[in-house]
Amino acid sequence: MSQRISLKEYGCLNPQAMQAVEIINKLYVACSGSDKILVLQESQPNQFKVIQVVAHPHLQGVNSLAMARDGRWGYAASEKSTGVIVLQNKPLTGLSVSTVLLDNTPAVSSISSLTLIRPDLLVVTSAKQDTLYLLNVTTPH
């Protein structure tokens, strides 16, 4: 083991999903029990440090993440809510919640996983509904 990070020290309870963005050496962790996303950056080979804690009302129960290959944007979702949260990652301000897609659409609820197949196609699953959705998305600017 090269490192142990206590996520609880950063307010992260029940980490459910993680996405790595290799090109910028960052890890994103969805904390479903504390409604946060942690951003970690590689500080030296095989060593990461928490650089940002993102909290937002739309992140309630966040349990799934899908980040673009360049890390400039991504998506998050929860089994506790409806819709898909759009995330933006800016050089000066870091990761933030940009908007929510389909938040008033009960059909797309209880989301259990997200996979970004290509920049314009997001696959969403709902375990409680035994359903898979294909969402056409555009790259946020």
Describe it for me?
By secondary structure, the protein is mostly beta strands. Helices cover 0% and strands 54% of the residues. The chain contains no helices and 11 strands. The chain has strands at 15-21, 26-31, 36-44, 47-55, 62-67, 73-78, 84-90, 94-101, 113-118, 121-126, 131-136. The strands form 3 sheets. The protein has a 4-stranded antiparallel β-sheet with strand order 1-2-3-4, with no helix packed on it. Strands 5-6-7-8 form a 4-stranded antiparallel β-sheet, with no helix packed on it. A hairpin with a 5-residue loop joins strand 5 (62-67) and strand 6 (73-78). The protein is globular. The N and C termini lie far apart (39 Å).
Number of distinct beta strands: 11
Q: Name the overall outline.
A: globular
Overall pLDDT:
90
Strand content: over 45%
The whole-angstrom Rg is 15 Å
What string, H for helix and E for strand, traces the elements in order?
A: EEEEEEEEEEE
Number of helices: 0
Specify the biggest β-sheet: 4 strands, antiparallel
Spell out the blueprint of helices and strands.
Elements: E1 15-21, E2 26-31, E3 36-44, E4 47-55, E5 62-67, E6 73-78, E7 84-90, E8 94-101, E9 113-118, E10 121-126, E11 131-136
Antiparallel strand pairs: 1-2, 2-3, 3-4, 5-6, 6-7, 7-8, 9-10, 10-11
Give me some keywords for this one.
single chain, 141 residues, mainly beta, 4-stranded antiparallel sheet, 11 strands, globular
Condensed summary:
The protein is mainly β.
